[in-house]
Amino acid sequence: MLCFGFRIISPRCRSTAIKNYTHGYPETVSILRWAISKEYMKTTRKEMILLLANKEMDAKEISSAVGVGEKEVYVHLSHIARSVKHQRKKLIIKPAECLGCGFVFEKRMRFTSPGRCPICKSEHIRNPMYRIG
Ligand SMILES: [Zn+2]
Fold first, then answer.
1. Which of 13, 37, 38, 52 matches a 20 to 30 Å C-alpha distance to 6?
2. Which of these ranges, 1-15, 44-58, 66-80, has the smallest mean pLDDT?
């Protein structure tokens, strides 16, 4: 079996790495793609953990800081919530808040932002904020 003992520094290195390590065998390409995406995932999460340990951010800010889509950010956040427990840390979520009437979406356990306020129907909602502490 092949050795996956290489590290991916940036997504740009991916295609070159695949070419160098597979010599054109398609089945190896797919295994490598899988291995690389796993490694890449871990790196993105590490980056997010570092960012959130330093400051409070919402999903949009995280998305542009680490260069992944907002939907992907939510997936990573749910994994991070579990993995930081091993370091006796917590993902602290400041719930979304209505900017119209001040209603706080405290009961909402989902990571994503609510669309509109159930009280005043305003759509001006401050996104949930995340931080690790
Ligand atoms: Zn409201």
1. 52
2. 1-15
**How far away, in angstroms, is 103 Cα from ligand 1 center?**
5
The residue among 17 and 108 whose pLDDT is bigger is: 108
What does the DSSP 8-state code read for residue 56?
Answer: -
pLDDT at 86 over 60: yes
89 Cα: distance to centroid of ligand 1 (angstroms): 32
For residues 23 and 62, which has the higher predicted lDDT (pLDDT)?
62
Q: How is domain 13-132 classified at the CATH fold level? A: Arc Repressor Mutant, subunit A (1.10.10)
Distance 64 CA to ligand 1 centre (A): 28
Residue boundaries of the structural domains of the chain: 13-132
